[in-house]
Write a structure and sequence with these properties.
The protein has helices spanning about 30-40, 45-65, 85-95, 115-125, 135-145, 185-195, 220-235, 245-250, 270-280, 280-290, 290-300, 300-310, and strands at about 5-15, 15-30, 105-110, 125-130, 155-160, 170-175, 195-210, 255-260, 315-320. By secondary structure, the protein is an alpha/beta fold. The protein is globular, with a radius of gyration of 19 Å. A 7-stranded mixed beta sheet has the order 5-4-3-6-7-9-8, sandwiched between helices. It is built from 12 helices and 9 strands.
Length: about 325
């Protein structure tokens, strides 16, 4: 098929506001164009695009949503209006799912402006290293570290998450909150997470995935793939994988106690809230001022919500433990 029209009507709630959103996406021959554009991007181009995107958009996000640049947690898909607390609860729920009771030294892989790093440092008294591809995120995060009195506990730097400048076996917690979707080579990404994990240490990956393929399926349907291709094009994402793919990769690395879960229902309100916020006067003005990459990202936000509704996008959580040397 060469033509598809997707129409979504949603009633959105955020910060006590209601908005009606109607999205119509017409793709006539666009599937091939979007896929070709994504395929043409090299790994270096993807990295540069990611860095530029977050350099451009992070200040706006912080002004609207605060220091945590990730989904919120809505228990059992129940609406709540305290969205920033929902983001904090996402951190807590991920730590609880992985049975983390203490952290001595951790690394935040794809750290944004360091919200998770500061939270974990304060909660456990941990020392946290953190990496991002965005120089502005690193600089802003270190400013916030100093303001919070954590300059000696939390350090952000610009580095490649698939080739981190840290010794093997350095961290008892390796944390990746919504950065895995940016990694162009998932096996290399998982290998690097496992490499820097100390024996007995724990890895937690919270990430966007596509649905698991059913028995006999070799790929997503063409219309499901179209949704993901448009999102990839806007957010400089490589090919997606499933939670089952991540589980397999961690098991191949020899990790133990590999567990997964699907929190798609628990984040179901988040993108509706973000869209509603973007439609406020402050949001609209901020998006336009931020730059073209931010605008491009804003225009595909409804496709994230559509992907969740269709069941093609899954909010995956994966955790694994590195065996002790004596095991």
């Amino acid at each position: 098929p060469e033509t598809v029209t997707v129409i979504m009507s949603a009633r959105t709630f955020a910060h006590g506001r209601c908005a009606r959103l109607r999205l119509s996406v017409t793709a006539k021959g666009s599937t091939r164009r979007v896929r070709a554009r994504a395929a043409e991007r090299s790994i270096d181009e993807l990295k540069a695009g990611i860095g530029d995107f977050y350099d451009e958009s992070s200040e706006l996000w912080e002004s609207m949503w605060g220091e945590h640049m990730h989904h919120g947690y809505y228990p059992n898909g129940t609406l709540r209006l305290d969205h920033q607390q929902a983001q904090v609860d996402m951190i807590e729920e991920a730590l609880r799912f992985a049975d983390v009771s203490s952290v001595s030294r951790g690394v935040d892989v794809g750290c944004g402006i360091g919200g998770s790093s500061r939270y974990i440092a304060k909660k456990y008294g941990a020392t946290m290293d953190a990496v991002t591809l965005s120089p502005r995120q690193a600089a802003r995060g270190n400013e916030l570290n100093a303001s919070a009195g954590l300059g000696d506990k939390v350090s952000l730097q610009v580095a490649d998450a698939m080739n981190m400048p840290f010794d093997s076996g350095s961290y008892d917690l390796v944390w990746s909150m919504e950065s895995g979707e940016h990694m162009p080579t998932k096996p290399q990404f998982v290998n690097e997470l496992c490499r820097v994990t100390a024996p007995g240490g724990r890895v937690i990956v919270v990430t966007w995935c596509h649905r698991d393929l059913a028995p006999g399926e070799t790929s997503l349907s063409w219309d499901e793939q179209l949704i993901l291709d448009r999102i990839c094009d806007a957010y400089y994402l490589p090919k997606w994988c499933s939670v089952a793919d991540y589980k397999d990769l961690f098991e191949k690395e020899g990790m133990e106690d590999v567990r997964t879960t699907d929190w798609s229902d628990e984040v179901s309100w988040f993108w509706l809230a973000v869209i509603a916020t973007a439609l406020t006067p402050q949001g609209l003005t901020g998006v336009l001022r931020a730059g073209p990459k931010t605008l491009q990202g804003a225009l595909v936000m409804p496709l994230m919500q559509l992907g969740y509704r269709r069941g093609v996008i899954k909010f995956g959580v994966i955790t694994a433990r590195k065996p002790n040397a004596a095991d």
